[in-house]
Amino acid sequence: MLNFRNRELCGVLLAVFVGFATPLSAQTDSSVDAVCTGAFVTEPAAGNPIPLRDPAPGESAELWENVGMGGCSVRNVVDPTLTPVLPETGKATGAAVIVAPGGGFLMLAVQHEGYDVAQWLAQKGIAAFVLKYRTRATPVDPKGYQGMTAELMADINSKKPILATPEALQDAMAAVRLVRSRSEEWSVDADRVGFVGFSAGAITALGVGLQADDSSRPDFIAPIYPPMEPQKVPAYAPPMFLAIALDDPLFAIKSDLGLINAWRQAGIPLEVHLYERGGHGFGMSGKTAAAALWIDQFYVWMKDSGFLAKAESVVQANAKGYSVANTTIGEYLAHPATKAILLKHLPMIANSDQINLMSSQTLVGLQMYTPDQITAQVLDAIQADLNALPAPTP
């Protein structure tokens, strides 16, 4: 049996577990989520991470690291956030997926198990949200951090049940509630909110999927390379998509894959993809051609399961033939698709306390009162987004 307390072996297994090698560079980032490119760590030029709780007291000690092929990672997270990655206006399917990166609850592989996944989903018309959940405190010193990873591997080797940390689970539940509470703003159907997670994020996906509180439970889950031990599956558990490589050294080798039968015996819809090779932590990096297909298969499963059905409100909105000259503010607000366009270009109107007084006005009519805000360029951009709405089906 492998001895996970061996420090040299630990370094190798850590790379397998969280999908990264020795950091190339690192910096602390106390303000916003970071995106790593090349050998550098930089703050994003765009993005709007939304806090999920009040900031922790004191200065943030988040450590962002460029980790080579695995992209970007962050550890010592104490202030959880949710970052929307939305599809282009008119392409939204109404489905939403929260993305939880893995990292053993010690760090988050936010690039290839987070941002890359979210961007792929958004290109397919799915509103994606990267969850930066709280992690355990780790030493900044690399040797001290390696010692913590050795303990993590020993726990995995002990065959003890592996559960999400209370903090990660709380953050996941808060993320589900947030997406549903702002579903109209993001052109999302509140009944089609999913949750995909990787490794530790997959453990979190299972945890939030088995919550009794339906307001915090997603409508479908997708654990990618999760622990495969059987669990008690209640009747309210959501449909599940699962993908794992059979040569996964942490969760598949020597496993009887009991999680699959647990879901089947509960009579809950389930789709499973078992890859001959791929190891642990393949994420969007692939590792094998077959394992790289997991996200395409996840997309098709969502489509087959009805989670990607075009929102009726989008079709209705386009059928009305909206225009900046003839459509009233009240009509824009009547459908999530057109309301989202108004929020995108004129948030001061869409969020105004006086919105009811403007409900009978058109945008062209309002332009004479606020020419500096409702410019010709803004009106042209709004009309272009309205024209891009999908044509109604016969």
Written as H for each helix and E for each strand, in order along the chain, the element string is: HEEEEEEEEEHEHHEHEEHEHHHHHHH
Biggest pleated-sheet summary: 8 strands, mixed
Q: Could you say which overall geometry the principal axes of the C-alpha atoms support?
A: globular
Please tell me the CATH architecture of the largest domain by its name: 3-Layer(aba) Sandwich
- Secondary structure tally: strands: 14
| Percentage of residues assigned to helices | 25-40%
**In angstroms, what separates the terminal alpha carbons?**
63 Å
| The CATH top-level class label of the largest domain | Alpha Beta
Question: Per DSSP, what share of the residues sits in E-state strands of 2 or more residues?
Answer: 15-25%
Per the CATH scheme, the topology name of the largest domain is Rossmann fold
Residue-averaged pLDDT: 82
The assigned structural class equals: alpha/beta
